[in-house]
Design a protein that fits this description.
Helices cover 81% and strands 0% of the residues. It is mainly alpha-helical. One of its GO terms (biological process) is oligodendrocyte differentiation.
Length: 220
């Protein structure tokens, strides 16, 4: 009896600690997703009416999963404190949903990055051609300042739109877009897969605690 109660207490505290870390991880994921969505390059493109929707999809799933993580972390603590098998079962189910969402985000980021890169490159091509037709078109300037690049094969036709800090060091925008978007999506993929790995421990703890609670009640 004493061993069962001791094991119950140990697993309970481990699950409480996990949920605290899980809640903090959820807030970090939300902040990370919002930073990618509303900061830097993506913000600049959005301000010009350009929306790389395929790139946004992964961010939306990431932010949604982060919000769910914070909510689940709170209810997981309640389930552990109250020793409720019902709450712990619901906690396990929510973790399973988060696990699926994060794996989807990670797979999307690694496998779908080619499509996201092509989408942004197409947006650049449109801005480039638009500037050649209308010199008042400022979208190309936004691309060049955001990606710190200048033109395609030759920057001569769009020299006036190039960032001043690139004088003497011209970068092909098509290549630079691929490098930047690939790096950001790789980061999203790593975060998604990492969080998915963490949720596995939460599912294990919740199921073990459920079993210990059931066994302790059977003993009583």
């Amino acid at each position: 009896m004493g061993r069962v109660l001791g094991g119950l207490r140990c697993i309970k505290y481990m699950l409480l600690a996990f949920n605290l870390l899980f809640w903090l991880a959820g807030s970090t994921v939300i902040a990370f997703g919002l930073w990618l969505r509303f900061g830097g390059i993506v913000k600049d493109l959005s301000s010009e009416g350009k929306t790389p929707e395929y790139f946004y999809m992964g961010l939306y799933v990431l932010v949604g999963a982060g919000a769910l993580m914070m909510t689940v972390g709170f209810f997981g603590c309640c389930g552990a404190v109250r020793e409720s098998q019902c709450l712990l079962g619901s906690f396990f189910t929510c973790l399973l949903v988060i696990f699926a969402a994060e794996v989807t985000t990670g797979v999307f980021a690694f496998i779908g990055k080619g499509m996201a890169i092509r989408e942004v490159q197409t947006m650049y091509e449109d801005a480039y051609n638009g500037y050649l037709k209308d010199k008042m078109n400022k979208t190309l300037i936004t691309f060049h300042s955001s990606f710190l690049c200048c033109g395609k094969e030759s920057p001569d036709q769009v020299q006036s739109t190039c960032p001043k800090e690139l004088l003497g060091h011209k970068k092909n925008c098509i290549d630079e877009i691929e490098n930047v978007i690939s790096a950001k999506l790789q980061l999203i993929g790593i975060v998604g897969i990492g969080i998915a790995g963490v949720t596995i421990f939460g599912m294990i703890f919740s199921m073990v605690l459920c079993c210990v609670i059931r066994n302790s009640r059977d003993v009583i």
